[in-house]
Amino acid sequence: MTSTGEVCAIVLAAGEGRRLRPLTELLPKALCPVANLALLDHALRRVSGLGLTDIAVNASYLAGQVVAHVGDRAHMSIEPDGPLGTAGGVGNLRGWIDGRGVLVGNADAYLADPNREPGKDIAAMLDGWDGETVRMLTLPVPAGDTGGFRGRRFAGFSLLPWSRVRDLAAEPGELVRRVWRPAEDAGELQLIHYDGVYIDTGTPADYLRANLHAAGGSALVDPSATVTGRVRASVVGSRATVAGEIDRCVVWPGARVEAGETLAGVIRAGDALTVVTT
């Protein structure tokens, strides 16, 4: 079994999140909250739960916000001229990786396994790893979909050996073409089954879906929020105010829903930004 001391972790958080606009005009995608915790924090908690202590985070779009949010919790890698993509982001960290295997996770991946703690739910990614193969966390491809990897689809995390990392350049590129497909062609790609729920939060509809899944059909309200209206199956952030009625909504930290407003299936940020998800 591979020692966690021989593996480091990278959480990819450099993306702009164009499909999440206009929300990502306020926050980088990695800092958008799910269940009142930034997506990036969910990812950091998951890799820490695996026992990994040497962690890096990359940043580009609104990088200052990401750097301030991470603080001293991880090594920061800044991409000042724009995001380098998943392969380029890893390649930019080759010197820091320095011969180790690396667990790479997407900050915008929502993972939830109600039967296990964060980290423990993806422990199979490290169990028995030989340090040479590429591993990918996967779920079955939904009926009717095409693509994927032998009938399975990527679920947010991959494990890369140094032999696949050492030649990655700090230039725009994606892991699917630079690492995953070549490893598949060489018979060196292992697909690790994930038992929980995975949601790519890249669109407003999927971002809302992840929040509502985390809420479990009830109201998830931060203790510092002020609620004088009605909240049903929604997530309400810190210091938010809900004086109206909301149903299946996300209200960001500090946002307001005024008396007389009735919102359903939307995301509210600030005083008046409302993102409709349908």
Strand and helix layout:
Layout: E1 7-12, E2 33-34, E3 37-38, H1 39-49, E4 55-59, H2 63-70, E5 75-78, H3 85-91, H4 94-97, E6 101-106, E7 109-112, E8 134-140, E9 152-160, H5 162-165, H6 175-185, E10 189-193, E11 197-200, H7 204-215, E12 220-221, E13 226-227, E14 230-232, E15 235-236, E16 241-242, E17 245-247, E18 250-251, E19 256-257, E20 262-264, E21 266-269, E22 273-276
Parallel strand pairs: 1-4, 1-6, 4-5, 8-10, 12-15, 13-16, 14-17, 15-18, 16-19, 17-20, 18-21
Antiparallel strand pairs: 2-3, 6-9, 7-11, 8-9, 21-22
Helix pairs in contact: 3-6
Short structural description:
This protein is α/β, with parallel strands linked by helices and 278 residues long. Helix content is 21%, strand content 30%.
CATH architecture of the largest domain: Alpha-Beta Complex
Query: Which strand-content bin applies to the residues?
Result: 25-35%
Q: What do we call the CATH homologous superfamily of the largest domain?
A: Spore Coat Polysaccharide Biosynthesis Protein SpsA, Chain A
Main pleated sheet: 7 strands, mixed
Rg, nearest Å: 19 Å
The neighbouring-strand order within the major sheet is: 5-4-1-6-9-8-10
With helices defined by DSSP (H or I, 4 residues minimum), what is the helix count?
7
Shape: globular
